[in-house]
Amino acid sequence: MVNRKELNPESSPQAAFGARLRSSREARGWTQDELAARMEFSSQHISAVETGRKPPTPRFAAKADRVLGTGDRLERQSRAVRHTALLEGFPEYVTHEARAAEIRLYEVGVIPGVLQTPEYASALTARAIERGAITPEQGDERNALVAERQAALERTPPALVFAVLDESCLRRPVGSPATMDGQLARLVEFAALPNTVLQVAPFDMGDRRPLSLPLYVLTMENRSLLSYAESAQRGRLERERTSVVPLLTAYHQLQAEALSQAASVAMIEQLRKGTP
């Protein structure tokens, strides 16, 4: 095809969306003009989205799904383009998390989003806005994403969720005392679910701790693995099994050294009572 622009889906969420839109269109054997007519957009608009020059709106992505028969894949992927306040790779990770059979997470310093109460999430966001780290609009994005992730996990059959929290997650005050008490109560409720395991990695694990940074590992329905790890300024989504398996091994080692679920819940209850 003359003047066909080659795409690099790895370069950005916007480019990844454009590449999927193009491949879905070509699988139908349609030209950009034909897709444009069916979607009631201009062919120039289709071209701009496919080549990553224009971001997809929620309306555009939803209509593309309907016309192309792609379920809700494009609509879900478009969220990665819009969540600009998040570290690179995380919005795409979230689209996989919503479909994973097993979710393993390790967090340091903050309760992970899938376990946050609305009050806790709002308090974190409010402080980030006060610091000027994000805009109020990006704060709304963050809060909406927390609710979205939690709703996606309320499915049948539910995912198996394994959560290991560094002790700092429990002891770092966020919001008011009532906010923290409600968040700790939420963790106890989470631990009681039939499809979850909650453990605390206590400070006294010391150098026996195999992980020092947050880590998320997904097992998909076809048993493929995917991981997401992040530092202070960047995140990395990894799909290569040779790279993910060592991280999964470290996660299992972490679980072996962490407190049991019963001991973890007991620690949380002690903190709620104000005892050391």
How would you describe what is shown here?
The protein is an alpha/beta fold and 276 residues long. It folds into 2 domains: 13-82, lambda repressor-like DNA-binding domains (434 Repressor (Amino-terminal Domain)), CATH 1.10.260; 90-272, Endonuclease, Chain A. Helix content is 51%, strand content 12%. The protein is built from 12 helices and 6 strands. The protein has helices at residues 13-27, 32-39, 43-50, 58-68, 73-82, 90-97, 118-131, 136-152, 167-171, 177-191, 241-257, 261-272; strands at 102-107, 160-166, 196-201, 215-219, 225-230, 235-238. A 6-stranded mixed beta sheet has the order 3-2-1-4-5-6, sandwiched between helices. Helix 5 runs antiparallel to helix 6 (90-97), helix 7 (118-131) runs antiparallel to helix 8 and helix 10 packs antiparallel against helix 12. The protein is elongated and about 65 Å long. The N and C termini lie far apart (69 Å).
Tag the structure with descriptive keywords.
about 50% helix; 2 domains; alpha/beta; single chain; 434 Repressor (Amino-terminal Domain); 12 helices; elongated
CATH class placement of the largest domain? Alpha Beta
Largest sheet: 6 strands, mixed
Order of helical and strand elements? HHHHHHEHHEHHEEEEHH
Distance between the termini: 69 Å
Separate helix tally = 12
Using the CA coordinates, give the radius of gyration.
21 Å
State the assembly state of the protein chains. single chain
The domain tally reads 2
| Strand percentage | 5-15%
Mean pLDDT: 88
Can you tell me the CATH architecture of the largest domain? 2-Layer Sandwich
Content-based structural category = alpha/beta
Low-pLDDT runs of 5+ residues are: none
Q: Roughly what percent helix?
A: 40-55%
Number of strands: 6
Strand order in the sheet with the most strands: 3-2-1-4-5-6
Bulk shape: elongated
Reported by name, the CATH topology of the largest domain is Endonuclease, Chain A
